[in-house]
Structures are given as structure tokens and as C-alpha cells.
Amino acid sequence: MTKIYIFPFKPSPEKEDCNIFIEFMLQEILKTLKVRYEKSENTQENTQEKILILIREQPELTRRELASMLGKTEDSIKYHLLKLTQKGIIKHVGSTKGGKWIIIEK
Questions:
Q1: CB-based contacts of 84: which residues, under 8 Å, 6+ apart?
Q2: What is the per-residue pLDDT across 44-77, written as a single tens digit (0 to 9) for each?
Q3: Which of 16, 17, 18, 66 has the most beta carbons within 10 angstroms of its beta carbon?
Q4: What angle do CA 31, 37, 43 make, to 5 degrees?
């Protein structure tokens, strides 16, 4: 039995420079990376803003409660709370279970 293979592309008989295509693809990749980076930065800022709004309303919220309310993981909330604390925007006072968050006004 003879097998027949169909090749969707035939090799070009001419050798052409493909630099134009490569440059185009690299530009498209760069555009995509810039957009994703900007979205990532906006998402982090939005998450931290939402956390601050919730803490203003209910300073005794736990990481678990914040995660549930924002649809994020507890690790994500822990990360953002740490960043906000490092920036001097918030601090936690009291015990781990019975404490509360304080927003430091500057």
C-alpha cells in the first residue's frame, strides 16, 4: 500500500530575506508584552485600592475575609498587605486573630 502525504507548504524556489517577517513578529511580541505589563500594574494598584476601601469600612477584616470578598487567594492578599505595610500606608495592631488594620494618613 502506498502512502500519500500532502504538504501544505511547498518550499520556495527562491531564497528571500525573512528579516521583514522577523522584525514584524518581534514588534508584535513587544506590543503584547507592554500591554500585559501595564495590565499587571493596573491590577495590582486596583487590588490595593480595593483592600484600602474595605479596611476603611471594616478594619478588623482578616486576610481570609479580604480574599473571599475580592475573589483573590489568601497569598495574594498577604502579598498586597505586605506591600501596603512596606509603603507605610497601613499597619496592623493587636493580636493576629483579634487585631485590626489602621490606615496611616500622611
A1: 48, 51, 52, 90
A2: 778 999 999 999 999 999 999 999 999 999 999 9
A3: 66
A4: 135
Dihedral sign, CA of 83, 89, 94, 100? negative
Q: What domains lie within the chain, and their CATH numbers?
A: 21-103 (1.10.10.10)
- For cell 505586605, what's the residue? 82
For residue 92, give the amino acid letter.
H
Which phi and psi (to 5°) does residue 89 adopt?
-90, -35
Q: How far apart are CA 2 and CA 100, in angstroms?
A: 77
**Which DSSP string do the residues of 21-58 spell out, in sequence order?**
HHHHHHHHHHHHHHHHHHHHHHHHHHHHHHHHHHHHH-
